[in-house]
Amino acid sequence: MNENKKTIGFVAVAVVLVILAFIFSPKKITPDAFLDQGEAFFPDFTDPNQATTMEVVTFDKETGSAYPFKVTFEGGKWLIPSHHNYPADAKDRLAQTAAGVIDIKKDDFRTDDVADHELCGVIDPLDETVTTLTGRGKRVTIKGQNDVILADFIIGNKVEGRDGFRFVRLPDQKRVYAVRMNIDISTKFSDWIDTDLLKINKNDVNKIVLKDYSIDERSMSVDLRDNLELTLKDSVWKANNMKKNETVDTLMMKELLAALDNLNIVGIRPKPENLARSLVNPEGKQSITMQDQMSLQNKGFFFTRQGQLYSNEGELQVYTKQGVVYYLRFGEVVFGSGLAVSAGTESGQGKSGSAENRYLFISADFDKNNVTSDKTGETGQNTANEANARFAEWFYVIPSTSFEKLHLSRRDLVVKTEA
User: Fold this and answer.
1) Phi, then psi, of 184 in degrees rounded to 5
2) What pairs with residue 168 in β-bridges?
3) Where among 132, 166, 192 does a domain terminate?
4) Does the pTM exceed 0.90?
């Protein structure tokens, strides 16, 4: 009798465990479930260089909205349509991403029950028929020429207990697989652009001017507090208006030059068309409209009555031996996160937040008086023209850390000498 009771007890426990496993593990095994196990997801996609477009759609459950990030090859250029068609440096990165997608296989069937999709995190972020805000995955679509779809899939949650595995589903199928993935599918704007913004060699810089001023926004008048000129001569930096017991802080100069050399951006905004044209061709007749001026002022930049451009946080001028002059004007604070910073979308914008950034207006010119030789002067003129054309279309957003390293004053760079 006792043996029978034991047997019945073991059976009951086993039944309970099976039920629990069914409830808490997103698995539904059927005889046909394993027929495609081990197969490639996209057998016709074999050459990573076929990829000319990638779009990644993520879902923000706080706003209940899907956000696309897209890079594409169009008109002979790599562009980021989701960021105002800003130029991308995407060929190699996209090829590497595509190669990783080619390698993914249907390693392990998990379920074909739609009810499990939320738990696996593979609900299509673009699916408007689903009301839930949770369980949305990341949809990745890769296309070739003529918009031929090479790959289209949804990446879900990590598979618990299996390092390197994610749940994956094809958008038009119910089946979910556990897939080994080693793909860096970044939607970070800075990962897809040329991060060398100024393209300055710090060893070529021989003069820096820091203009410290304030603007009366009503009268558009400028109050110049200081004009610090730092000049390199015989490998020593000197400052204007230095006292006998003062010298330029060598360490601070090195840090300033390094900050210029490593200046990076976290976002962009397109400039008004008329303004951009006038910057490319200063001698052309381009009228700046009231709307253009408002776009400037909202970002902290102002034209005086004499037509000179100023910014509410001063400016930095950088001169090179080739005669190229870079003008960096610092504008308003940019709060927010994600696309609100990188592309200027409404979501995430506000007057608070940990991610404090700053607008930056950059232009370039050529100064023949700062050329060290005729040969470098010719190179400098071309460099200045190319740089100015590249900067003309965009307002840039830089991180607060970069702003703090560049927005210096005389007291930061000029120190008293030891007695």
Assistant:
1) -95, 90
2) 155, 177
3) 192
4) no
